[in-house]
Amino acid sequence: MSKILNVISSPRGEASNSIKLANAIIDQLRAQDPAAVVEVKDLTKSPFPHLEEVHLNAFFTPIEHHTEENKAAISHSNQAIREIMDANVIVIGAPMYNFGIPSVLKSWFDHIARAGITFKYGANGPEGLVTGKKAYIAVATGGIYSSGDSAGYDFVVPYIKAFLGFIGITDVTVIRAEGLAIPGIQETALDKAIDSIQL
Ligand SMILES: Cc1cc2nc3c(=O)[nH]c(=O)nc-3n(C[C@H](O)[C@H](O)[C@H](O)COP(=O)(O)O)c2cc1C
């Protein structure tokens, strides 16, 4: 039975384009595999904290030496890693905020990247340990970044792909709803994005 992890990073609920686009991707995945189970990870309702000293101390202390404080500090990171390891497919809804990803998504990434657990450094450099997954990124942007003058300002897609690749997720499909703030384009942008979904 396949498991889909639906990662939400827009706080806009039913009005959110990235959530609607991610849901359309998930509907198509479930049409292919009706038994697939979807787990929703809404990072806006349960945000991960910015990394603080307690988290870093716990990350870099060997597990056998963990104190109660280390264990408490690392518990959400451990849970997030279990969820991503358990999933076969990860669907990330990503609005563009000021050319980058929402900070809630960055915080989740910060709690997932753990040396020795989700990546390691070997003789050939970094090696991702979260392997055998498929990821979809449902991107929503006010402007247009797939081509044209603003293409160089997209720090959403290259960054998410770099991060996922670093932890071992290299099979990534990007679907963009773009031009959502541009009159004449915004009216059809989401429908065009949904029509462009190819699993
Ligand atoms: C705080 C904020 C910052 C934004 N920054 C950008 C931006 O830099 N570039 C852009 O094209 N759109 C930007 N937008 C527009 C959003 O990307 C767009 O409204 C998108 O639909 C938001 O995703 P959502 O509908 O899933 O919430 C911004 C919107 C907000 C609320």
Automatic annotation (TrEMBL):
<comment type="similarity">
    <text>Belongs to the azoreductase type 1 family.</text>
</comment>
<feature type="domain" description="Flavodoxin-like fold">
    <location>
        <begin position="2"/>
        <end position="197"/>
    </location>
</feature>
<comment type="function">
    <text>Also exhibits azoreductase activity. Catalyzes the reductive cleavage of the azo bond in aromatic azo compounds to the corresponding amines.</text>
</comment>
<dbReference type="GO" id="GO:0016652">
    <property type="term" value="F:oxidoreductase activity, acting on NAD(P)H as acceptor"/>
</dbReference>
<comment type="function">
    <text>Quinone reductase that provides resistance to thiol-specific stress caused by electrophilic quinones.</text>
</comment>
<dbReference type="InterPro" id="IPR050104">
    <property type="entry name" value="FMN-dep_NADH:Q_OxRdtase_AzoR1"/>
</dbReference>
<dbReference type="InterPro" id="IPR023048">
    <property type="entry name" value="NADH:quinone_OxRdtase_FMN_depd"/>
</dbReference>
<feature type="binding site">
    <location>
        <begin position="96"/>
        <end position="99"/>
    </location>
    <ligand>
        <name>FMN</name>
    </ligand>
</feature>
<keyword id="KW-0520">NAD</keyword>
<dbReference type="Pfam" id="PF02525">
    <property type="entry name" value="Flavodoxin_2"/>
</dbReference>
<keyword id="KW-0560">Oxidoreductase</keyword>
<feature type="binding site">
    <location>
        <begin position="16"/>
        <end position="18"/>
    </location>
    <ligand>
        <name>FMN</name>
    </ligand>
</feature>
<protein>
    <recommendedName>
        <fullName>FMN dependent NADH:quinone oxidoreductase</fullName>
        <ecNumber>1.6.5.-</ecNumber>
        <ecNumber>1.7.1.17</ecNumber>
    </recommendedName>
</protein>
<dbReference type="InterPro" id="IPR029039">
    <property type="entry name" value="Flavoprotein-like_sf"/>
</dbReference>
<feature type="binding site">
    <location>
        <position position="10"/>
    </location>
    <ligand>
        <name>FMN</name>
    </ligand>
</feature>
<dbReference type="GO" id="GO:0016655">
    <property type="term" value="F:oxidoreductase activity, acting on NAD(P)H, quinone or similar compound as acceptor"/>
</dbReference>
<dbReference type="GO" id="GO:0010181">
    <property type="term" value="F:FMN binding"/>
</dbReference>
<dbReference type="GO" id="GO:0009055">
    <property type="term" value="F:electron transfer activity"/>
</dbReference>
<comment type="subunit">
    <text>Homodimer.</text>
</comment>
<keyword id="KW-0285">Flavoprotein</keyword>
<dbReference type="InterPro" id="IPR003680">
    <property type="entry name" value="Flavodoxin_fold"/>
</dbReference>
<keyword id="KW-0288">FMN</keyword>
